[in-house]
Amino acid sequence: MTMNATIETAPDAVSQRLTFVLAAACGMIAANIYYAQPLIAPISTALGLSHAASGLIVTMTQIGYGTGLLLIVPLGDLVENRILICSVITLGAAALLAAAFATHATPFLIAALFIGLGSVAVQIIIPYAAHLAPEAIRGRVVGNVSTGLMLGIMLARPVSSFVTSALSWHAVFFASAALMIVLTAVLWMTLPIRRPVTRMHYGELLLSMPHLVRATPLLRRRALYQASLFGCFTLFWTVAPLQLADAFGFTQRGIALFALAGVAGVFAAPIAGRLADRGHSRVATLVAMLLAAGGFLVTYIGAPGSMLNLVGLVVAAIAIDVGVQGNVVLGFRAIFALGHEHRSRLNGLYMATFFTAGAAGSAIGAWAFAQGGWTLASAIGLALPVIGLLYAAME
Fold it and tell me: CA-CA distance, 115 to 88, in Å (whole number)?
């Protein structure tokens, strides 16, 4: 029995096996948000979308995800967690199937919206893992689970590019739908039951969230730290493929291979979790911001299009990803220590804040690249972690 919930489970609730299952689930689900990003051209051509409207392919998924963060994720403080997780994944599987069968723009865009909604199961799983973990190793467990999340994000783009080049973009959504169906069955048989004990109604749950923002300065601070880093992360990964195609003549497959460089950043999550458990969150946060800022600086080494400059871009991809992925775990560890009874709502607010910054970073990056090329876009990307560092210095 905990202060806020009953957990029906064996003593090894947070075993290595369960941690692995939760990490794998996070990666598979999170990938659904990013599969379409490198496929905008073939999907928009097949569905008859104009060049101006093709951005909706990604935007609708982002809208669905952002909506789910605020309206579905808080239910983790109210509804039995295993049922909630499996139900949300099932919604995502149905949406993926609808996208796979779509032959016109409107059905696909509606499906994309619900793919985003179904993908917020990730943000129910992470606080669920924190509930199962003892305080002494909570950062480590959350870091390990987040490793799966970040691995899914980074592998989604190259995987969808390779599958599309070998088969078709429809195959990407069919395969992911099948994977979600299998995953739902595995989680239903594996996850311990966790029943939150609360007398709040759903409306009261949502209305309590603005109060949590006002009353929780640590939440605001950690959310803004991550917003500065996630904004530069999405800016980099929006603009880097454009720079690779423009200055280096990379094809879609070459860009997919470049994206694999960022996968090295997943190792930051468990390390950050351990540092947080040992009380080193502040120093680790500053290092994360310095890495992200330094990543943009090394992209100025060498002439554009040179091998030295390409090496700089690869180093930047690794450094920025390490900083961003390490810092998000530091934030999870900090806000999950604030209280059991509102952990899901805190997570929804935390994620919604920096996800909004990420969406803005992507849009600003594309605009800046069109206006001033890599010089302007990277300057804005560099400014974001610097602003985060200045804010952290006032802590």
Answer: 10
